[in-house]
């Protein structure tokens, strides 16, 4: 059984028996057991999944050119890039805006399910998955930065202008909610599930 | 602070070189952020009309159109968090290099640990590059010096965070046995 904690600020290792809420080196609050971590994480993940529906179906931005305006969804944007021969960019936008949020939600669902019902996957695999989810989450913000930049630079009135549409707000909300879901998840529940499965005798 | 009569233990060569390298990277990133924020990011032209865009033009445009939540998100993740991160690293590493442990430095370490996950200059940079390619069909766009500065700032921030050894720094600034800060 592991009896050490890592301080999230200074990365010093502290014995779990250290019965104080803060790190002895930097006084940062040590990670405490978060009651209801799985429920909170699941709630954020479900909210994110709900927000992804308007994010993918509503237009994220509108482009007005010479008085004619048309709005684009994320799918449309990727499809247009592909048709214009910008395959590399289409793949980048597809990965960041469509694949990463979906993968993140699927990964979170797997983490929550494996922590709730032990034996679905090995603890090592789940710990790696948790680290991966932390790393990839930020890349979904690509579309929001893209829209913000376009809005700021293309301001020529009726000649050419770019505006934000509700899909962008829903998409940003989905990205933030998935990040909060990963942050709310207590990785120690993975270890708890593994330890419980070791303690429980296998029926013969 | 070191007590009277308490000698400062010399820092190892590895610690000094790592701290120096990381401090140089963080300071460079901070300088490039200042340049990236103040210089034009891009100049767009359509039918002879020109428009200069800065890093905060997008934020201002989003704010004006009523999307203040998106504006805040972009401002925090694209500028405020990266600048807070590099500033904290500079303060901490400078204090470690000068052997000036102060209780107040803990706040900078906590700040760095908290803002790191919201600091996304590399994602912002990629978003701007993709936007440039999309823009080519709409308006003529030229990259400004702010874009290069912001890109370099993002690169140096990544390098400095990768080289930042929080445990090593904590052992210099907050050695075990030092009186813990109250509160």
Write up what this structure looks like.
The complex is a heterodimer of chains A (204) and B (183). Chain A is mainly α and 204 residues long. Chain A has two domains: 1-32, no CATH class; 33-199. Chain A has seven helices and five strands. Chain A has a three-stranded antiparallel sheet. Chain A has a two-stranded antiparallel ribbon with strand order 1-2. Chain A is elongated and about 70 Å long. Chain B is mainly alpha-helical and 183 residues long. Chain B has one domain (25-173). Chain B is 64% helix and 8% strand. Chain B has seven helices and three strands; from the N terminus they run αββααααβαα. Chain B has helices at 13-38, 57-64, 68-97, 105-115, 121-135, 145-163, 166-173, and strands spanning 42-46, 49-53, 140-143. Chain B has a three-stranded antiparallel sheet with strand order 2-1-3. In chain B, a hairpin with a 2-residue loop joins β1 and β2 (49-53). In chain B, α1 (13-38) packs antiparallel against α6 and α3 (68-97) crosses α4. Chain B is elongated, with a radius of gyration of 20 Å. The two termini of chain B are 18 Å apart. The relative contact order of chain B is 0.20. Classes of the chains: A mainly alpha (204), B mainly alpha (183). Chains A and B meet through α3, α5, β5 and α6 of A and β1, β2, α2, α3 and α4 of B.
Question: Main attributes?
Answer:
heterodimer; A: mainly alpha; two-stranded antiparallel sheet; 5 strands; B: about 180 residues; 7 helices; 3 strands; elongated
